[in-house]
Each structure stands twice: as C-alpha cells, then as structure tokens.
Write a structure and sequence with these properties.
Elements lengths: L2 H24 L7 H14 L10 H24 L14 H13 L6 H15 L2 H10 L4 H28 L4 H23 L1
C-alpha cells in the first residue's frame, strides 16, 4: 500500500468526520443532502460485503467497519435525530435517475457475473454519482455552509489522491482497474463542478 492510498483513505475519513461534527455541534443537518448520504451508505454496504468472506489486513478491515458505521450514523442523524432541521424541500433529486442506470451498468460491465462482484461493481459506479444530490441541492439553494464545503473539498481530495494511487500502482505493479479508474475520474469531474459552483455562487 502506497502513501497516496493511505492519504486518500485519511482524506475520505476526515471528510466524513467533518460532516458528523458539523451535525453534532450545530444540532442541525441544514444544507446536507440526506439522499447523498443514503447513496454513500449503500455504496459502503454493497462494497464491503467481503468483510464476511475475505481478510486482507487489519487496516483494511478497520477502515471498512469505520466507514460503514459513520455512514449509517450520518443517515440516522439526518432522518431521525435531527430530522426537523432536514431541508427535504431542496433535497429533491430523484434517486431513480441514478440507481436504475447504475444497476443496469453493473450487470452489463463487470469482471465476473457473481453476486459479490456485481455488488462491488455497483458500489463503484454508484460512488461516482452519489454526490450529485448534494451538488443539486447547492445549485438549487445557491449556497453552501463553510463546513459543507470543507466536507466536499476533502471528498474531492480523496478522489484526486486515489487517481495518484492508481497511476503509482500502474507504474510500480502494472496494475490497472478500468472500472475503478473510469468511475473515479467521472467522480472527480463532479467535484470540480462543485468548486466551480462554489466560486460562482
């Protein structure tokens, strides 16, 4: 495991911690898309089913468990604990526009036609578009809190570091995962769109 992968994981974890701290400290989930958080919880759930079948390392297992717990705690905070502060009117992106194509694509383009592999592929494709409800919400309201922008910045940094990780692995191990790389690049483009929105708004 190289430094880009570790920094990418830490950036991803920091983004989630920033979001959770924002919710807990302000006792509010205003400005946060619950739909994006549901999609991220679905991403982690379908990707980390191999927790029950494959052991890679203690680091890998701990990070998977932490991401799963954080994802579900975030969804709980938004839809249960602080639901009165949730802006459902502006969090109006229709998830079927993402889920239907992603499900179809995961059946058509995967490395092997097995349940775990299809679910892993689904998680990769879904992660690339999971931020869209949040970006849609920002574009609709025309504003984003500083904490929310920090959260999005570190998510974008995580994707950029993972691209560096893939380049490093290609040069040092001749390893290339086409599905992960293409989806990661698409996701990074969406984060660039967020920074454009932030500057112009």
């Amino acid at each position: 495991m190289n430094v880009f992968r570790i920094l990418g994981d830490l950036s991803h974890l920091l983004a989630i911690i920033i979001l959770l701290l924002k919710i807990v400290r302000s006792q509010s989930c205003a400005g946060i898309s619950g739909k994006s958080q549901i999609l991220f919880a679905l991403v982690f759930t379908t990707r980390y089913l191999d927790l029950f079948t494959t052991f890679i390392s203690v680091y890998n297992t701990v990070m998977k468990v932490v991401f799963l717990i954080c994802a579900y705690v975030t969804v709980y905070m938004i839809y249960v604990k602080f639901q009165k502060t949730f802006d459902s009117e502006n969090d109006s992106f229709r998830l079927e526009f993402l889920l239907v194509p992603v499900i179809g694509l995961s059946f058509l383009e995967n490395y092997s036609f097995t349940p775990l592999e299809i679910l892993w592929t689904f998680s990769i494709y879904l992660e690339s578009v999971a931020i869209l409800p949040q970006l849609f919400m920002i574009s609709k309201t025309g504003e984003a809190e500083t904490i929310t922008t920090h959260y999005l910045f570190f998510l974008g940094l995580y994707r950029a570091l993972y691209i560096a990780n893939w380049i490093w692995r290609y040069h040092t191990e001749s390893f290339y995962d086409q599905i992960a790389v293409v989806s990661g690049v698409v996701q990074t483009i969406f984060y660039c769109d967020f920074f454009y929105l932030y500057v112009t708004k």
